[in-house]
Design goal:
heterodimer, A: mainly beta, four-stranded antiparallel β-sheet, 12 strands, globular, B: 113 residues, mainly beta, seven-stranded mixed β-sheet, 0% helix
């Protein structure tokens, strides 16, 4: 069955420290991969996406993600987090053959001062 | 400004009282969808529409109805709300298939007592 797993429900990181949020997927087709961010009280906003080509993709707000086909992973990274990065992050997978996206359960990022 | 709007943002109602949550987008997008977000479950799709007069069930359609009479509007109807429909609802739109960015509304917090 197709699925997206975000193993960490919560992650706490000190301000200025590096961040990695994990995303693993199980998907038969060649996937399109997305990371969205939901700030408190807001809708979701696209951070970055991967379709093909360079497996390291850059997004907004200083985030990047790396697609590793052999590990079925698409982990999100940021070298130095800011307090404004506190939010919930969602990984999603889709394919052009199917209009639907499959969503992970989300990871809530907490920033320690 | 390109946006997806939802109304109301907050709604408290009683079991069995019909309600409608409106959704409108100004980007001429063909694809629109409704999600509900519950803690630990991420986003679950309720219904989606690939164009005017074309709607289809998502993962959790029971207890909901939708219509797509105009391209810009995609209302969500709860004919007889129940407490298990208490949730945060998001409307989203995009211009094409799964490869395209989804734009989300700000969310509607619904409480059914």
């Amino acid at each position: 069955a197709q699925s997206v797993t975000q193993p960490d429900i919560h992650i706490t990181v000190s301000e200025g420290a590096s961040l990695e949020l994990r995303c693993n997927y199980s998907y038969g087709a060649t996937p399109y991969l997305f990371w969205y961010v939901q700030s408190p009280g807001q809708g979701l906003q696209l951070l970055l996406k991967y379709f093909s080509g360079d497996t390291l993709v850059q997004g907004i707000k200083g985030f990047e993600a790396e697609f590793k086909r052999s590990q079925s992973s698409f982990n999100l990274r940021k070298p130095s987090v800011h307090w404004s990065d506190a939010a919930e992050y969602f990984c999603a997978v889709g394919a052009n053959s199917n209009y639907q996206l499959i969503w992970g359960a989300g990871t809530k990022l907490i920033i320690k001062p | 400004e390109a946006q997806v709007t939802q109304n109301p943002r907050y709604l408290i109602t009683v079991t069995g009282k019909k309600l409608t949550v409106t959704c409108s987008q100004n980007m001429n997008h063909e694809y629109m969808s409704w999600y509900r977000q519950d803690p630990g479950l991420g986003l679950r799709q309720i219904y989606y529409s690939m164009n005017v007069e074309v709607t289809d069930k998502g993962d959790v359609p029971e207890g909901y109805k939708v219509s797509r009479k105009e391209k810009r509007n995609f209302p969500l109807i709860l004919e007889s709300p129940s407490p298990n429909q208490t949730s945060l609802y998001f409307c989203a739109s995009r211009s094409g298939g799964a490869a395209y960015e989804q734009y989300f509304g700000p969310g509607t917090r619904l409480t059914v007592t």
